[in-house]
Amino acid sequence: MRFAKAHAYGNDFLYLTDDAAAGRAPDALARELCDRHTGIGADGLIVYTPAPGGARMRLFNADGGRAEVSGNGVRALGALLLLDDAREGATVTIDTDAGPKRLDRIGRAGSRQTFRAAMGQPSGLRRASIDAAGERIDAVVLDIGNPQCIVLGPLPDEARFARLGAALERHVVFPVGTNVEFAHVVAPDRVEIRIWERGVGPTESSGTGACAAAVAAIAHGGAARALEVVAPGGSQQVEWKADGVWLTGWAEILWEGRWLADV
Fold first, then answer.
1. How far is CA 235 from CA 110, 143, 231, in A?
2. Mean pLDDT of 190-219
3. Residues ≥6 apart with Cβ < 8 Å to 27
4. pLDDT one-digit tens code per residue, 228-240
5. How far apart are CA 28 and CA 151, in angstroms?
């Protein structure tokens, strides 16, 4: 079974075509392949079918759970599709469970490609007071193609990050679970975040998480409409404009290979 591996700022994904995955339950396949000790290792598995001008994709988190979209995963798929395409200004559209995402390639250095991605408008933006892990949390809740819970304020220490991240991810307030970001507005044009991803746990980066943190910081933290969002894995640029949220960052193809284990 042929696969590719890619990452964006340390948020890593495995890629299989639908033909390669045929006959295998994708949730079980995700758990098998994404395991970092007995598999290849990744935050998620993306199964895709190339199409004119782009592809259709399905995303499964490392625990096998289905997810609607990943900003980093979409960009890495775009980089895979355009790996052998030398055109300047190439554009692809990725059809996801959260709708189509258009990617405009604005730079390239080897297998690392930079895209500006149209992520759509946030919905359901509201403040919420949530009792979790023995604390009353003042959170910002929204959807940016997938569910997000953002806690604004100084970043937590390791123990509090793990405790609250796990508690909020599966809190009763979120029937299908949620991604969690802790976001600190350090300047109007700069937000620092830590990410607890649904079905994965701590991740180095998240494209939709960066978008969600930016929206929360703009709406309730005094941030500017265009800003840098800094995760442990690096910085991405987010703009919240009249036509939606735009995410700019790179993705890199690491390698292609063949899975030999009996799955």
1. 20, 21, 6
2. 98
3. 60, 64, 65, 66
4. 999 999 999 999 9
5. 32
